[in-house]
Design a protein that fits this description.
2 copies of one chain form a homodimer. Chain A is of the alpha/beta class. Chain A has 15 helices and 17 strands. Chain A folds into 2 domains: 3-50 and 373-425, Urease, subunit C, domain 1 (Roll), CATH 2.30.40.10; 51-362, TIM Barrel, CATH 3.20.20.140. A 5-stranded antiparallel beta sheet of chain A has the order 5-14-15-16-17, with no helix packed on it. Chain A has a 4-stranded mixed beta sheet with strand order 3-2-1-4, with no helix packed on it. In chain A, strands 6-7-8-9 form a 4-stranded parallel beta sheet, sandwiched between helices. Chain A starts with a strand and ends in a 5-residue tail after the last helix. Chains A, B: It comes from Anabaena subtropica FACHB-260.
Chain lengths: 467, 467
């Protein structure tokens, strides 16, 4: 927890300096050249030190289905996903390990896991993920994914009259479950936080949102939700509320400076103003938005309106990776095609700040995380600048963001504890993990989905697609 | 050149089989289970065999500037690029090696290098790239980048009257240079082909295009060019020809079934019909198009119109990587946001075919390359399906295309010669290359560009951007 990184490159406002960085008891204690060595010495030569990034929206257990779900829009993709979701607590543990490892190896030191709960074993699911994240040592924000309406309720009705099965668990039981999870697992000082996390307006009643707000206020919890990922959800919000989803969420009080909202693709200008005013955070998941054809989130507009934005990989079935550097790259350059004026484009340095400090803000931790400054927690990543994918030498941060870095993370620390050294995860046996993931899965190449068959005609009709 | 891969997974029309593949004298001789072993035995267990992909558009020497050019639209980016382009023959050699290695390690076995020529040392530049590609053993299509107009001529004039310096080399000298390159270096049977490659309508006269057509016909050479990468080029074509660039190129006879055209972002429906009728090939460079804000090429329209499409990384200053699997992934999923009807979206299997057979068609080699079939050249890649980035097991090709595979290429062969074994390039010393690239470069973090300063006001005016 106490160490000194010598002769390392760090970014200043618009340049770089070579310096030493002292970490004492998990916090950054000094930044200056030629510091006295305290604790272990780390050689920073030809290395770049950055604050750890946050994989600010994912669903870890989707790792089991990555590569396995058809190229579909969200609503049909989700139907297929439900048909093959893992229902085994041990698998949840392994995919949380896998998600943590891929996040760490691509510059992340924290993960926000919007965790799919196994019905009837909800607390066991959370316990399993907690165990994995503690073992790896990544900082984890576990957002148990809750809903109180059935999957079919997530589609707009259009002209038709739809009836839906009631959800198998009551709203109050669901809220009780979250509260129990908070009591058992919410230990921010130990690197595990619980978030209240209704899946989104498409599958949640106001009662569920309001219960979450109450828990959030009572236990000082951050709030997390999907928001307007697809055009279908935009239609649904109008049917359900007679106004936009953002207007409705503001009215019921869900939006706040500790609320982070995944996707935010289908917002209008008034909605954007509301996000800015409420200081809500947008979690941009560019790869998932492309893979599912959801659309391009208006990220440049968010930034111009003063909305805080950060990045997530989203679950590994809609991406199908947990490479945070990939999400940062695509989440930056994608928007250059949405505005001809390049003065608004996201620079590599801005992207890095969004991925670190932007995420910390959304998790109400900007005073503790997200930048390299005296007194901040040592969630740090050291990049090897001699790696083939980062040479020839030019601008280190531009190479990291605009290139395709592979095997570049030399070291990573969470709260001052070293999790990666010499490019290898030190806390768990990754080869063993790899074997288990391999052995517990099988090649699946055909995937007829009953749920998709039930949904597809209605989906095409309501979305105005030909039969 | 003769070997047998045993128990390897290969793709059938809509599934996979485990089989043996026999390669004799550089060609695929048999595909069936339990074949007699000829030559070396390769263990294919838990591995996927695919045809090698083609990095169908790049500029190798841009590797020296990757991460080094501002986040700008093409025209300003190009101005900055020109200011710092390498002018050292040895650097051309090293960046060709680097481009080849990154291409090979991401599934490519061929590269189309639209090679920037050092003024006054044009043939030496080509010789240097040829030497590098022969040493590595990648199949190379060298397309010497030629023009006969000055950089400023590449911008539309708008309302103003612009005059441009004449280009330093005459059209006839330029054509003579290409012909000499063909005589010296065009050896398709040895894996090196020369293409005629005017940079594009923005910087080339009709005389240059027509000279290239003549050389192409006389020496049986493929044709390559940039086409309508930016909106500025679309405007310029109207100023220059009074019609679209595609109409003009068709009239002068440049389009053909051995013509490949990089970018093709700003085409209208009539242009697309012309590309289909002339059997031209579109080389899609999705990452460069995003990075430079050029736009999203209408790839789904091309496919519906029957236009052949393949993928390129583009030069490493506009991407800034040569990871072909990244280009294939983004070049597939990007288009899901351009059409709500998911039935037109590119499936992972279609993407693989575009990257292999699609490229072979554009290079007039579909009979020899681009698929795994009896009698085809053995340009093959073997992927390790036990790699962390490709597990848990689901659908191998979907994992490869939709995931973020790293370190997954186990082996690669070009014309039956093994270039990668156990994940390592066997033909050159990559660590030495890495050292040289590192030592011959330096961190560059400030980059005021004189040329940009000259261009920017005119660019903003003509593109309708505020001052």
């Amino acid at each position: 927890m106490t160490f000194t990184i010598q002769n390392v490159l760090i970014a200043t406002d618009d340049d770089y300096i070579t310096t030493d960085v002292q970490i004492v008891d998990g916090k950054i204690a000094a930044i200056a050249p030629n510091l006295d060595v305290v604790g272990t010495t780390i050689d920073g030569k030809h290395k770049l030190l950055l604050p750890g990034f946050v994989n600010a929206h994912t669903h870890s257990s989707e790792m089991w289905q990555r590569g396995g779900i058809s190229v579909f829009p969200l609503e049909l993709w989700l139907a297929e996903l439900y048909d093959s979701a893992p229902v085994d607590i041990e698998k949840v543990y392994l995919s949380a390990l896998g998600t943590a490892v891929e996040t760490l190896l691509s510059g992340g030191t924290s993960v926000v896991d919007h965790l799919v709960l196994i019905p009837g074993e909800e607390l066991e699911t959370i316990a399993s993920a907690v165990r994995a994240y503690k073992e790896v040592g990544i900082r984890a924000f576990i957002a148990p994914l809750i809903q109180d309406e059935s999957l079919t309720a997530g589609l707009p009705s259009g002209e038709s009259t739809q009836t839906h099965e009631p959800f198998f668990r009551s709203t109050s039981d669901t809220l009780e479950l979250v509260e129990e999870a908070v009591r058992r697992f919410h230990r921010p000082d130990e690197g595990i936080s619980i978030l209240v996390a209704p899946t989104g307006i498409q599958l949640c009643t106001d009662a569920l949102f309001e219960g979450c707000i109450e828990l959030s206020d009572r236990y000082n919890l951050c709030r997390h939700s999907h928001l307007l990922e697809t055009k279908a959800q935009e239609k649904l919000a109008q049917e359900k509320y007679g106004c936009t989803a953002v207007t409705h969420l503001q009215r019921i009080g869900f939006l706040s400076d500790r609320t982070s909202l995944a996707h935010c693709v289908w917002l209008n200008d008034a909605d954007i103003t509301i996000l800015a005013e409420t200081q809500s955070t947008v979690v941009h998941n560019p790869l998932s938005n492309l893979r599912l054809g959801s659309g391009i989130a208006p990220i440049l507009k968010y930034r111009q309106a003063g909305v805080n934005v950060t990045f997530g990989c989203d679950g590994a079935s809609s991406n199908d990776s947990q490479d945070l550097l990939e999400a940062i790259k695509i989440g930056s350059i994608l928007h250059n095609v949405t505005d001809f004026d390049y003065r608004y484009w996201i620079s590599p340095r801005q992207a890095i700040e969004m991925a670190s400090l932007g995420a910390a803000k959304g998790l109400n931790l900007a005073d503790k995380l997200g930048s390299i400054g005296i007194g901040k927690q040592a969630d740090l990543v050291l990049y090897d600048l001699t790696n083939l994918s980062l040479i020839p030498r030019t601008d280190p941060i531009a190479l990291l963001v605009l290139g395709r870095p592979t095997n570049v993370v030399d070291s990573a620390w969470v709260n001052g504890k070293q999790i990666i050294a010499n490019g290898q995860v030190t806390t768990i046996n990754v080869d063993k993990l790899r074997e288990e993931l391999f052995n517990l899965s099988e090649w699946v190449t055909k995937r007829p989905s009953e749920t998709v068959a039930q949904f597809e005609l209605h989906y095409r009709t309501v979305m105005g697609l030909s039969e």
